[in-house]
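Quick one, tokens below:
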């Protein structure tokens, strides 16, 4: 081996080294990374909505020995419990050997993704074509949602107390839906408009039928035919849309991206790529952890974490208070010693748009789990801004386990911004830092991550639990 020059030695001792993960990881990791990616794609394809993700999480948790939490049940070190919040968020815990006054180790992520929710009166007919009218959810770039295949998933709650599960378009043979776009031949005026204004929200009309109901007279025969098909399949009538949560989401599955198959493309990876990492992190715990492990997978992050199924909901506090009560530990005592890895996707550097990033402070694909000291906008507004001591703690935790990590910002200061659930955890007096998988095309119907980074984020969640 060549002897290193003094400059080289100094460089290694004094300067930051950021390396491509494929150059530094142990070759024994190749198989686990590939297998993890396969498992994750299955999760992603099943979990096109937050409710679907929760259902899948429950299934996986029960396979791993978790049981529904019931007040009064006996909780021993090693007991694995979960609790579902209104079908849209879930919290899981593995009781540790240490008492809860020593705090808990938390990973948190969100399961909701940008999409097109149906309005309360969605179905209409216009010029012999039937449409469903959505109200978009989360920060979408509207031009990305036209002329792609869509599927419909969700629930219809009927007044008789039954809840009908709706899924149309998930199976290969299922019909799909689409939002039409203007042909370039006649788009002269539209093409002059600003990108954000060219496709107005109220033009995102989902095409669902064109064939009139035969042998009846009167108006709206195409609409009537569509409603009739829905009635035959699901037993629902038009007023039932009022108490429904139906989401139009992209009707394509997660796939490998690249000749080298190093990446995954798919819908809803913000933030299911981290949700899956948190979930697998707690499911894969092989022994009883010292501190109690808690995994919170929540809803409504994309619209500000408000509401009963969000990270701000007291559902999370109630669950932990229930655990603490069994050991006569005040919740506040547990919180003040707890730690949370707030897992949400990081912005991945995209060489096609280099102008929006500070290139020395941005996460890159294949450089590992992306830590983020702060998010926010206009001078960190809305960020939790982890303290230096917390950042040092996570650096050491990951370094000690050879887990590849990097530190980045959202983008250039004043270029835009965003937030995560981190601040709501931190507001509970819990030390929190953001970390997640660097993502390309964030919030697009088709987002891209690297398999290596997804795996490293999972490894980071495990590290948090194993301490
Ligand atoms: Mn997110
Ligand atoms: Mn998001």
């Amino acid at each position: 081996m060549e002897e290193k020059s003094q400059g080289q030695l100094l460089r290694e001792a004094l300067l930051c080294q950021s390396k491509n993960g494929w150059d530094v990881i142990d070759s024994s990791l190749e198989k686990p990374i590939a297998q993890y990616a396969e498992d994750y794609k299955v999760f992603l394809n099943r979990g096109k909505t937050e409710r679907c993700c929760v259902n899948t999480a429950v299934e996986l948790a029960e396979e791993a020995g978790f049981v529904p939490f019931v007040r009064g049940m006996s909780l021993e070190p090693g007991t694995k419990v979960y609790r579902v919040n209104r079908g849209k968020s879930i919290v899981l815990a593995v009781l540790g050997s240490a008492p809860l006054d020593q705090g808990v180790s938390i990973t948190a992520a969100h399961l909701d993704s940008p999409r097109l929710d149906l309005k309360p009166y969605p179905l209409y007919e216009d010029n012999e074509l039937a449409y469903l009218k959505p109200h978009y959810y989360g920060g979408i770039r509207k031009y990305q949602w036209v002329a792609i295949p869509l599927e419909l998933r969700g629930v219809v709650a009927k007044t008789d107390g039954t809840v009908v599960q709706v899924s149309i378009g998930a199976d290969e043979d299922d019909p799909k839906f689409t939002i039409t776009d203007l042909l370039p031949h006649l788009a002269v005026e539209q093409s002059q408009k600003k990108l954000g204004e060219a496709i107005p929200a109220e033009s995102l009309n989902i095409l669902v039928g064109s064939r009139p109901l035969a042998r009846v007279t009167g108006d709206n025969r195409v609409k009537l035919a569509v409603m009739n098909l829905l009635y035959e399949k699901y037993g629902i009538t038009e007023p039932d849309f009022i108490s429904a949560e139906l989401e139009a989401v992209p009707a394509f599955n997660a796939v490998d991206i690249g000749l080298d198959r190093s990446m995954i493309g798919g819908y809803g990876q913000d933030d299911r790529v981290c949700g899956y990492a948190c979930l697998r992190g707690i499911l894969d715990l092989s022994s009883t952890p010292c501190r109690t492990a808690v995994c919170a997978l929540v809803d409504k992050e994309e619209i500000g974490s408000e509401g009963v199924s969000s990270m701000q909901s007291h559902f999370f506090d109630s669950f932990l208070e229930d655990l603490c009560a069994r050991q006569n530990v005040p919740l506040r005592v547990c919180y003040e010693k707890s730690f949370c890895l707030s897992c949400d996707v990081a912005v991945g550097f995209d060489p096609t748009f280099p102008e929006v990033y500070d290139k020395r402070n941005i996460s890159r694909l294949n450089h590992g789990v992306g830590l983020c000291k702060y998010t926010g906008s206009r001078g960190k507004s809305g960020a939790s801004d982890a303290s230096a001591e917390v950042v040092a703690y996570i650096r050491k935790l990951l370094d000690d386990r050879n887990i590849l990590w990097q530190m980045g910002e959202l983008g250039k200061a004043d270029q835009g911004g965003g937030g995560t659930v981190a601040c709501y955890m931190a507001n509970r007096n819990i030390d929190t830092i953001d970390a997640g998988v660097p993502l390309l095309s964030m919030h697009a119907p088709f987002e891209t991550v690297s398999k290596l980074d997804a795996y490293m984020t999972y490894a980071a969640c495990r590290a948090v639990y194993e301490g």
